[in-house]
Structure formats: structure tokens, C-alpha cells
Amino acid sequence: MNSAMLSDVYINPEKKSVETLWKDGHRSIYHVTWLRFNCRCKVCKRTVIGELNIHRSQFPSDLRIKDARLTKNGSFLELEIIGEVVDGHVINIDSGWLKSACYCDQCLHEMLQERTLHFVDPTKVEVPKIDYNELDTQEGMLNWMKQVIDIGFVVIQNVPLEEGACIKVGEKISPVLQNTYGKLFDVLDNQSTENIANSQIWLPLHTDQCHYEAGPGVQLLHAIQFDDCVQGGESLLVDMFYVLETFRKEFPEDFNILSKVPVPFGTIDYQRKNPCYLYTRKPVIVTDYDDQIVGFNFNKGIEEPLRIHAKYVEKFYQAYNKLDRMINRNEFVFKHRLRTGELLFFNNRRMLHSREAYMSNGGRRRLQGCYISMEELRSKYVVCARLMGNLDVVAPKIGNGSAV
Ligand SMILES: [Fe+2]
Ligand SMILES: [Zn+2]
Ligand SMILES: [Zn+2]
After folding, report:
1. Distance between Cα 93 and ligand 2 center (Å)
2. Which residues contact 40 (CB under 8 A, 6 or more apart)?
């Protein structure tokens, strides 16, 4: 039995919607305006990306259903409506598409559930690793991207010790993104006054480039040189989505404050090599229409003075401090010391990252980094999985402000 076949259709008494019964027993309700504007007949169906065949603003606001019927053994739904503006038009929608677009509460819940993130316990799970040589195969590519989709990061081992090798790795997935620090940047102790990362001191957990409307998706950090004599300098990673789900349960009121109050982030430096003015404000936690956590902005190092309505000031700092303490709980922290030739590859909009302080002891810790698009990675992941036969692959959320 094909579960995406219709078995019956009823017009609701007010003629504003239909209820469909499916062969598997599922019931859906579709509204007349939704049905008309999603018509899949030969005239209306979009066949080219961007094509617009239904001119919605030409329709009256009060459409009604005149007739509804199933055709071809329940594989199509046909409707005629009062208020139609195209002569002789009959709405025609294939059942498979109609079922996949069902917006009943159960289907909406399932849509969000299947895209929700699954968290791993850093105290029980090894840091995920993959070898550079595997990246040349389709299986290797898929495995690489799957680790980033599933866990949020992966360490690529045996990356050639060449200048710009991280760009070559990144470009296997997406063009490298230009940012405040150029396309390729070095992280080493060079006494630079541009960024504190270029020192030996401890860096708190953070997200890079919160001063943009949307920070870069994936960050690559390639350990071109990390001498054994260097003491410290371990990389730390925390799945902020995991933390925030926990935070919401433990401190719901603080969660609400942090998802409402906007924090200013800025990088304003007229003295640096490439003078810049980057400034924006946005809440620490980003939620959506369904109250799903869909993003966050967390970087104390580039926060600007908080300017919010007085009644929120104290509440904000109390809430922020609770979150700040939570992210450092052992249960959330992955810790890894990069070896020379290893490349840390992580979703910057999901994983907070930091570095422990280090002492070079006559050696050197030099990382080279760049950013690529996480949305391109997810796109490649889905395409690659489908090419390899997994037509049911689901793309979970990636921290880009969307739950789907
Ligand atoms: Fe960073
Ligand atoms: Zn049509
Ligand atoms: Zn449904």
C-alpha cells in the first residue's frame, strides 16, 4: 500500500478548507488559499527555479471551495474554487507532494524532530578524526561532512605542511570566505595588536566574527607547526546547542532574557592594516517561530557596551553569567591537542572554541586558518549522500537561523 495515496476528501462546511483521508489512516487539512497558491497543474507548477506562475495578489481574499474530488485512484486531488481568476482553471495536486507538504501538528512536529540535533557526550566519545587522504574519495567526503553535520567538528590528520593547505581543504567543499582577517590568517604568537589570539594567553570559549550579521559557518585551523616542547595550547570545543537546550531546562527565565536582549558586537579599528568598522547587535540566543533554538551569538571579546532598557540590565548579566558558567562544565567540553599536520574543522555556528594558554619553551605553535560556508557543506552533504544511494538523507539544522 502506498501511504501517500488519498482515500477520501471532504469539504468542510464553511468551504474554506478540505480534509483529506490517506490510505495509511493519516488525516490532513488544507486551506483553500494554500491549495490554490500551491497548485501543481501544468500551468501553475514551477518548472524552472524562480519561475512565478501564480499571481497571488490578483486573487480576492475570500476564496471558497466549490468542488473537491480524487482522481486516478487517489493519486491526485482536484478542486474548483469560487473566486478563481484564471478561466477554466482546476487545481490539481499529486498526492505524494501533497502528503509531503502536510502541515498538521503531527507532521510539523516530525519535520522539526527529524532535523533536530543529536548530542554526544564529550566524556564518553572520542574526538572524531579522519585522514587527509580519505578526502579524495566520495566515501571519505561523505564521512567527513557527516561528522561535521552529526557532531559539529572533525580533526583531519596528515594534512600536508604547506602554506595555505587549509584553503585547499576548504575548497573541496566551498569557496573560502573573505573576512576581517583576510582569506587566510595565521594564529601564532607574533605580538600582534590586532587580535588576542596572536599571543600565548588563554582564550575563552567563543564564536568567531559575531560582529557580522552572520558569522562564517565553518572554521578551519591547520596546525602547520605545533612543537612537542610547547606546553599547553590545547583546543577546546563545546556544542553550544547542547548547552542551550540544557540551559533552557535549568534556567527558563534566564533563557528568555538572553533570547530577547540584544548584545552589541563590534570590531572597530581605524589603526589596523585594513581599517574597519563592523558593528551589529543581536541576542545571545536566537529562537524561531516554533521556539526552536536556531542560532546564538557568543563572544565576550568583541562585545561593545550594553545599551538596553534599564530594567533588563541586571537581569541580563545574571543570566549571562549563568550561561557562561555552564559552558565550562566538563560534561560539555571536548579537549584536543592538535599535532603538527592536524586540522581542526568545525561548525563555527554550533561549536564554541577556545585555546588554553601555552608556553612555547623555545618551540612554536602556529596555526593557519580560513572559513568556508556551512550551508554549502550541508548542500554538498545531501547531494553526496543521495548520489551514494541514500535518498532519505535528512539535513539537520546547522545554526544558520533556521530550524529546517
Ligand atoms: Fe576564534
Ligand atoms: Zn493550477
Ligand atoms: Zn500530517
Report:
1. 8
2. 92, 93, 94, 97
List, as ranges, residues with CB under 5 A of the ion ligand 3. Answer: 28, 102, 104, 107
Instruction: Give the tens place of pLDDT for each residue, 261-314.
Output: 999 999 999 988 889 999 999 999 999 999 999 999 999 999 999 999 999 999
Chain length of the chain: 404
Q: Which ligand is nearest to the CA of 4?
A: 3
Q: State in Å: Cα 75 to ligand 1 middle.
A: 53
* Residue 139: exposure state from Cβ atoms within 10 A (0-12, 13-18, ≥19): exposed
**ipTM of the complex model:** 0.92
- C-alpha 103 to ligand 3 mean position (Å): 6
Q: Which CATH number fits domain 129-387: 3.60.130.10, 3.90.199.10, 3.40.50.2300, 3.40.50.300?
A: 3.60.130.10
Q: For domain 6-103, give the CATH number.
A: 3.30.2020.30
Please identify which residue in the block is written with the cell numbers 605580538.
191
Ligand nearest to the CA of 205: 1
Identify the residue whose cell numbers are 557568543: 298
Ligand nearest to the CA of 369: 1
CA of 165 to the centre of ligand 2 (A): 52
pLDDT in tens, 2-12: 779 999 999 99
Calculate mean pLDDT across residues 212-230.
96
Give me the residues near ligand 1 (ion), CB cutoff below 5 Å: 208
